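In this supplementary section we document a worked example of the pipeline. Step one takes a protein sequence of length 198 as its only input; no multiple sequence alignment statistics are reported here. Step two produces a three-dimensional model, which step three serialises into structure tokens for compact storage. The input and output of this example are shown verbatim.
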Amino acid sequence: MRWGHLRVWNDDIIAPHTGFPAHPHRDMEVITYVRSGAITHQDSLGNRGRTEAGDVQVMSAGSGIIHSEMNEENEATQLFQIWIMPDEKGLPPSWGTKPFPKEQRSGSFITLASGLPGDTDALPIRANARLVAATLKAGQSTEYHIAPGRKVYLVPASGEIEINSVVAAAGDGVAISDESLLKVSAQQDSEIVLVDVA
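The serialised model returned by step three reads:
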């Protein structure tokens, strides 16, 4: 429910031709990480877009936005939807999406969405936070450095991994604090999503 500025981490399976009809949000950064299938977004700003597996969309709800998210496909859609509390309230709402092919993050973490300085290739969010992802083959390892005072929440979307001697399987949530370095090893082919927050 709350880990630092991380407010919600939803793991959703949306049946074909169903979804979330128009509903409001306010003062929340909402990141949607599509794991399989696709989701179609439409909002009160006039934005409409389809986000496929491997891609990410970000909505800054700001002063208020109404949106719908529908699975218009003939297969189920799996996604993580991650809510992060913004640094400032009442800003104009916005929405964006970006493809991040999984090959691009093979073997190491890449930043997908961020409000931190220097993360210029990521989708922008209005929060002191970063979302990264990696795909590891069985036997591969990678690292993630954590700045002092920050918290991390990590979920294997698939596979099984070991993080600093703790084993986590697909769907497990790992809340991490008071660590400076994560050493992640894949025991099976794995896809990993991580949020780094104040």
